[in-house]
Design goal:
Family: Belongs to the metallophosphoesterase superfamily. YfcE family.
Strand order of the largest sheet: 3-2-1-9-10-11
Oligomer: single chain
Number of strands: 11
Number of helices: 3
Domain Calcineurin-like phosphoesterase: 1-161
Enzyme class: hydrolase
Number of domains: 1
Protein name: Phosphoesterase
Helix content: 10-25%
Pfam families: Metallophos_2
């Protein structure tokens, strides 16, 4: 199963447009959104093209193909604009060989890992910093941020394809990080 991951959109219409363009081209089955969809939050500057209502409209066009979790900047008011659920603090995607534990990263994350089995994948956002690596017997994957990248990284998104998790630069498609999760 091919999946696309986007995190920390923070109401940026240009980032949303780019994500949806890449999603359409990707043949991914699902677009997984890892929280912080519409609101920029009090610690972040306004992202380029801040237009939360328009972001909601554009994402709603793909509502039946979106799996999302709640970020620390998401609220019940945001849910009123979105036609797909965003209030779950975590979700799980079950693959044949492993589980993807999806979370934003502010409750469960690299410093507070939920109980996972060997080979499972912790998929999170929140830090805006890309990660694709094995830590001990689990994998950590953070696609970075599509709108407010940090740590000197480019805006980025993630892909799971043929057993490889990749963080990909939003604008030039350069692979920033990757890890193979299939034995």
């Amino acid at each position: 199963m091919k999946l696309m991951f986007a995190s920390d959109i923070h109401g940026s219409l240009p980032a949303t447009e780019r994500v949806l363009e890449l999603f359409a081209q990707s043949d991914a089955r699902w677009l997984v959104i890892l929280g912080d969809v519409l609101n920029h939050g009090p610690r972040n500057a306004l992202p380029q093209g801040y237009a939360p209502a328009q972001v909601a409209e554009r994402l709603n066009e793909q509502a039946s193909r979106i799996i999302a979790v709640r970020g620390n900047c998401d609220s019940e008011v945001d849910q009123m604009l979105l036609h797909f659920p965003i209030t779950a603090p975590w979700q799980q995607v079950l693959l044949a060989e492993r589980r993807l534990f999806l979370t934003h990263g502010h409750v469960f994350g690299p410093d507070d890992v939920p109980p996972l089995a060997a080979g499972d994948v912790l998929v999170y956002g929140h830090t805006h910093i890309p990660v694709a690596e094995q830590r001990g017997d689990i994998f950590h994957f953070n696609p970075g941020s599509v709108s407010i990248p940090k740590g000197g990284f480019a805006a980025s998104y993630g892909m799971l394809e043929e057993g490889v998790l990749r963080v990909v630069a939003l604008n030039d498609q350069r692979v920033i990080a990757q890890v193979a999760i299939n034995p």
